[in-house]
Amino acid sequence: MKKRILVVDDEPAITRMLVLILEQTGRYEVRSENSGRNAIALAREFRPDLMLLDVMMPGMLGSEIAEQLQADPELRAIKFVFLTAVVSKEEAQRSNGQIGGHTFIAKPISADDLCRTVEEHLG
């Protein structure tokens, strides 16, 4: 059975690109959401194994979505990786890709980096 991934970013061009990259591997069922406010409801319905969460979004930050996931007994098993344009690739490498103990990927994201990070989290 394919692992499920939910991509949450307020920029439709980014979610489309990430969905395409992940679907091309043939390993994942991928859905996307451009509204942070709708992400929790979609997570509840879709039951992803992993969420890729943009950090800076209008309405609701990626960190707030992650907090709600972790506070919900039904959703706390969902793994998540933050996407951010705020941190450079160099900063990401220096901190081993971690912010507050959570993995993040610096934008712009290469297909290789994306697939490697997803593989590491879904094993």
UniProtKB/TrEMBL annotation:
GO terms for biological process: phosphorelay signal transduction system. SMART domains: REC. The modification 4-aspartylphosphate is found at D54. It comes from Georgfuchsia toluolica. This is Polar-differentiation response regulator DivK. Gene3D superfamilies: 3.40.50.2300. Keywords: Phosphoprotein. InterPro entries: Bact_response_regulator, CheY-like_superfamily, Sig_transdc_resp-reg_receiver. Residues 4-122 form the Response regulatory domain. Coiled coil: none annotated.
